[in-house]
Write a structure and sequence with these properties.
Layout: H1 34-51, H2 62-85, H3 90-119, H4 125-137, H5 141-148, H6 155-158, H7 165-191, H8 198-219, H9 239-250, H10 252-255, H11 260-280, H12 293-305, H13 312-317, H14 320-346, H15 353-360, H16 362-378, H17 384-410, H18 419-425, H19 429-432, E1 446-447, E2 455-460, H20 462-478, E3 481-486, H21 504-518, E4 522-526, H22 544-555, H23 565-587, E5 591-595, H24 610-614, E6 622-623, H25 626-645, E7 650-652, H26 655-658, E8 664-665, E9 667-668, E10 671-672, H27 682-686, H28 689-701
Parallel strand pairs: 2-3, 2-4, 4-5, 5-7
Antiparallel strand pairs: 1-3, 6-8, 9-10
């Protein structure tokens, strides 16, 4: 390697035991950059705060900060080795990675498997946890989670106690590929002075291609939402974040700051960007994508500023408490999420449970750091057989426990479960056929093909899959086929009212185009309209006439109380997008049924875990729908106004079918009606069959 490419020693952040240093100053003579270790603390606290339910909607970007740090650390470490020895010992590198990451991970996964036996349902949740555990130990949790739990912000993903391991797999996949890329670049650079920039070019190419994929993926048009390789969990759309950190390490000699004022400006700007990302980025942001630049640039600027000791940002990060939390950050990241999930299961109606669980997770995290992470990291296997034994002892227990969990769950732990538990566990037809949160597939998601009396298309957000069984049963009685498509938090509308997903606009257009090209007899629109109570969520304002209709409808029901301007604005925005769809379909001669929101109970206890099997929670048998009806009134009024404005459209109110005596049963004939507070079970949706059939028949007559 030419002399001008040989860098001075850089920090091996987080890869050696904490060493004492004067508070406020990064260590320059040792192996660590204490300010970068403090940045690890910032990253993990961002993630923990987000998962604990604190008001930091963009806290999940702490993972992106970790990615930048990892790129910086690994590239610096490899560059030191290459400069000192002229080669990279890949076996030693991967052994260090294994000792650093896997034993602590294995302990957490094993604990999670044991707790899952008691606290998770054997009707799906345990299987998901077991599959994720196996994926985690084989460095592929991101792919497994994308398949079994869906999007990071989906309800199903939030119930997976190993959801946090997706980022660990992405990082480990980076560790496999990136050292090889650097080694090839340095080998070429050693051959000729003219090729000395090749390593930089390789890193830049990785960054540009990966960032381009992230931006294109964020539009929703490069690949369907179901293709995880181009979206949230993908290493392809995250590699540029590692590359940014690696570029900082490779160019350290040229980027070292000598000006205190420049360091202060860059560090301050980086801190502002990191702070801004906590509130400017939310779960509704297309991510990763252009907005990911905010936390990535913030982290990079803070690291760059740290090459000058005296700026306040660097000194604050290098304080002893921040460095200590940075030391614990890996274990904190491992332990906080499963404890939050389990606390939410044990105390589902206590809003403080997630935050308290996050705080308490520091105890097992510190214990893991002291008794597992540090001792094994310092362990030096004297032979290959001894290292092989370490691998076996580390990897086999979590895999074995995951296998036992999966087998027990498949056998329902050899217990006789009540009908209510089985009803909750029963898959909706649309979900079991892959018609939910997947690209629209009318071939796969059509029932009773070739039925003699017409076709029905059911489309909407998660309410569509929850109502699908009732719609399919009604259509079967009428001799009609049913095609179903459902996208969570994405209404069938011409406005992406929820801004829930970058796939939403494309899906909305695809469904409407399909309806116009195939001309079904009836389109049933099932949106949880009250879920879009955000007037600032996007789209254009509705006209004064629509607002007046909404205000009139909501003001007439005294139970609703005062209707706020925000309610009117969000309802009118929702109505404008819905009206565009209904009007377009009616002009094309397609019948339309607007299925209004179900009455929603304040509380549903559907815990089917072994713990609740022996220690059940007493629950009421019925609930009064008045409060739910009142809270839905602005959006119900908006739907009524749309139906009135489009002759031949049918408005379907599910309340009479679900609450025939004025109160709504939570259990009907020993079977659960509600899956949760927002969705019906499969059996619950079948209660709508008869009245839905009447509405669909009426709409078909107007076809």
């Amino acid at each position: 390697m030419s002399k001008d490419l040989a860098p001075p020693p850089l920090a091996d952040v987080g890869h050696s035991p904490a060493s004492p240093a004067a508070p406020g100053a990064p260590s320059r003579g040792g192996r660590r950059r204490l300010d970068v270790q403090g940045l690890r603390a910032v990253a993990v606290l961002m993630v923990v705060a987000f998962h604990a339910g604190l008001p930091v909607p963009g806290g999940f970007v702490g993972v992106d900060v970790f990615f930048v740090i990892s790129g910086f650390v690994i590239a610096a470490m490899l560059q030191r080795e290459w400069a000192g020895t002229g080669r990279i010992r890949f076996a030693a590198f991967y052994i260090r990675r294994f000792k650093r990451l896997t034993p602590a991970l294995a302990v957490m996964v094993s604990f999670t498997m044991l707790m899952s036996v008691l606290l998770l349902s054997p009707f799906g949740a345990q299987q998901v946890a077991g599959q994720t555990a196996i994926g985690t130990m084989f460095l592929s949790a991101n792919a497994v989670i994308a398949r079994v739990s869906g999007g990071y912000f989906d309800v199903a993903a939030g119930a997976n106690p190993l959801l946090n391991t997706w980022s660990l797999s992405v990082e480990e996949q980076f560790y496999i590929a990136f050292p090889l890329i650097l080694a090839v670049g340095w080998l070429l650079a050693r051959r000729s002075v003219r090729l000395k920039s090749v390593p930089y070019v390789f890193v830049a190419v990785v960054a540009v291609i990966s960032f381009g994929l992230a931006v294109l993926g964020s539009t929703g048009y490069l690949a369907p939402r179901g293709d995880w390789l181009i979206h949230f969990y993908s290493p392809l759309t995250r590699a540029w974040e590692f590359a940014v950190g690696a570029a900082l390490a490779l160019a350290a000699t040229r980027l070292t700051l000598t000006s205190r004022s420049a360091a202060l400006a860059l560090g301050g700007l980086g801190a502002v960007l990191l702070g801004a990302s906590l509130w400017l980025i939310t779960g509704a942001t297309a991510f990763p994508g252009p907005w990911t630049l905010l936390p990535v640039a913030g982290a990079a600027l803070v690291i760059l500023a740290g090459t000058q000791d005296a700026n306040p940002v660097t000194r604050a990060l290098a304080t002893r408490p921040m460095v200590r939390i940075g030391d614990w950050s890996y274990s904190i990241y491992l332990w906080h999420w499963p404890l939050i999930v389990f606390a939410a299961l044990l105390w589902p109606h206590n809003p403080l449970a997630p935050a308290l669980a996050a705080l308490l997770s520091f105890a097992p995290a510190i214990a893991s750091y002291v008794w597992v992470e540090q001792p094994i990291r310092a362990l030096v296997p004297r032979s290959r057989p001894r290292f092989a034994a370490l691998v076996v002892v580390t990897v086999v227990p979590p895999l074995a426990l995951a296998g036992v969990l999966g087998m027990g769950a498949r056998a329902q732990w050899w217990m006789d479960w009540p009908a209510t538990a089985k009803a909750v566990a029963a898959d909706h037809l649309a979900m079991s056929h892959g018609c939910t949160d997947q690209p629209f597939n009318p071939v796969l998601c059509t029932w009773d093909k070739g039925a003699p009396h017409g076709k029905v298309l059911l489309a909407g957000d998660s309410q569509a899959y929850a109502a699908a069984d009732g719609v399919i049963a009604a259509d079967t009685r009428l001799g009609m086929s049913t095609t179903v498509t459902s996208q969570s938090r994405c209404p069938l509308s011409t406005v992406d009212t929820a801004k829930a997903s970058y796939a939403c606009p494309g899906w909305q257009k695809q469904v409407l185009d399909y309806a116009l090209s195939t001309r079904p007899d009836v389109v049933v629109i099932a949106n949880r309209s009250s879920g879009y109570a955000r007037p600032d969520s996007g789209g254009g304002p509705a006209g004064d006439a629509t607002q007046a209709a909404v205000a009139s409808a909501t003001g007439s029901g005294g139970a609703a109380g005062t209707v706020s301007a925000a309610d009117v604005a969000s309802a009118s925005l929702y109505a404008s997008g819905l009206n565009n769809v209904v009007r377009t379909l009616r002009l094309a001669g397609v019948g339309v049924v607007v299925l209004q929101g179900i009455p929603e109970p304040a509380r549903v206890e559907n815990d089917t875990s072994i713990l609740r099997r022996f220690f059940p929670i007493a629950t009421p048998g019925t609930f009064d729908p008045a409060a739910s009806i009142a809270s839905h009134l602005p959006w119900a009024g908006a739907e009524a106004a749309v139906v009135t404005a489009n002759r031949g459209t049918v408005l379907y109110n599910p309340v009479p079918a679900l609450c025939p005596s004025g109160t709504c049963p939570l259990v009907e004939k020993g079977v659960s009606v509600y899956l949760d507070t927002d969705h019906l079970t499969r059996e619950g949706s079948l209660l709508l069959t008869t009245s839905l059939g009447v509405a669909i028949k009426k709409a078909a007559a107007a076809h």
